Amino acid sequence: VAATIAALEGGEAALVASSGMGSIYAAVMSLVEQGDHVIAQHNLYAATTKLFRDLFPRWGIERTLVDQTQTEEFAAALRPNTKLIYLESPSNPLLHLTDLKAIAELARERGITTIIDNTFATPVNQRPLEFGIDVVVHSATKYLGGHHDLMAGAVVADRAFIKRAWEFSLVSGAVLSPFDAWLLQRGLKTLGLRVERQNRNALALAQFLEQHPKVARVNYPGLESHPQHALARRQMSGFTGMMSVELKGDLAAVASFIKSLRLAECAVSLGGLTTLITPVAAMWSHQHTPEQRRAIGIGDGLVRISVGAEDERDLLADFAQALDK
Ligand code: PLP
Question: How many angstroms is it from 17 CA to the middle of ligand 1?
Answer without folding.
Answer: 12
